Amino acid sequence: MNNLNIVGHNTKGDRIDNDFYPTPEIATIKLLEKESFKGDIWECACGDGAISKILIEKKYNVYSSDLINRGYGETGIDFLKTNKIFDNIITNPPFKLSLEFALHGFKSVKNKMVLFQKLVFLEGTKRKQELFSLNKLKNIYVISNRLKFKGYKTGGLMCFAWFVFDVNYNGKPTIDWI
User: Fold this and answer.
1) Most distant pair of Cα atoms in the chain: their distance
2) Element counts in the chain: helices (H) and strands (E)
3) What are the backbone dihedrals phi and psi of residue 149, each rounded to the nearest 5 degrees, phi first?
4) How confident is the model at residue 83 (pLDDT cuts 50, 70, 90)?
5) Which entry of 29, 47, 94, 108 is 20 to 30 Å from 101 by CA?
6) Lowest mean pLDDT among 44-53, 81-90, 137-146
7) Strand pairing of 86-91 and 174-177?
C-alpha cells in the first residue's frame, strides 16, 4: 500500500521554505493571558516579527533575531550556534529543528523557554529521553481551536500548543487549554 495522503504529509512538495509559518496573533495573546515573564525576552526565530510585535505591545523588552531575513529583527543569527543568554525565550522554531532548539535553549535561558509547537511534539522516544526527562516542562497550553496561519484561507488540520519550560522547575507538566 503506497498511500501518502495522510494528515501532515506533504504530497505536493510545496512546503514553505525553512518552515516559515508565522505564529497567529491570537496564539501569542492567549499565551500572555496565562504566563507572565520577568526580564528580557529573546525571540530567536522571529521571522516577520509575529510574536515579537505582540510582546512589545505588552511592554516586554524583546530582542528579535533569525537566521533568515524576513524583514524583521537582526538577521543572519543562527540560534543553534549562538552563546547568547537571556532571561526568557519565546519562539516558534522551525518544526524540523524543534528538539535542537529546545535543547540549545536550555543553554541560552535563565528562566523560561516557551516553544510554539504542534501538539505531536509530545511524541517521540528521542524527545522523551533527551528533553522531557529533564522535568523542566512546566505547562502545556493546548490551542483548543484550529489556527489560521498567514497565507492560508482556512484553519489547519493540526493542533498546536505552547510548551513552557522553566529551568527552575522540577516536576511533571500541567495541561490547560486556551
Assistant:
1) 54
2) 4, 8
3) -95, 150
4) very high
5) 29
6) 137-146
7) unpaired
The topology (CATH level 3) of 21-177 is Rossmann fold (3.40.50)
- 18 residue type, one letter: N
Q: Hey, what's the cell of 66? A: 533569525
Q: What pLDDT sits at residue 72?
A: 97
Q: How many CB atoms lie within 10 A of CB 81?
A: 8
Sheet architecture: strand order including 41-43: 74-75, 62-66, 41-43, 86-91, 109-118, 160-166, 137-142, 174-177
Which has the closest alpha carbon to 47: 14, 24, 73? 73
Q: Measured between alpha carbons, how far is residue 22 from residues 53, 116, 148 in Å?
A: 12, 10, 10
Q: Where are the domains of the chain?
A: 21-177
Could you count the other beta carbons within 10 Å of the beta carbon of residue 3?
7
Q: Does pLDDT of 148 surpass 90?
A: no
Cα 26 to Cα 150: distance, rounded to the nearest angstrom: 12
How far is 163 from 142, CA to CA, in rounded Å? 9
Single-letter amino acid code for the residue at 126? K
**pLDDT-derived band at 17, boundaries 50, 70, 90:** low
Its pTM surpasses 0.85: yes
Q: CB neighbours (10 Å) of residue 160?
A: 23
Residue with cell string 511592554: 59
Instruction: Give me 90's grid cell.
Output: 519565546
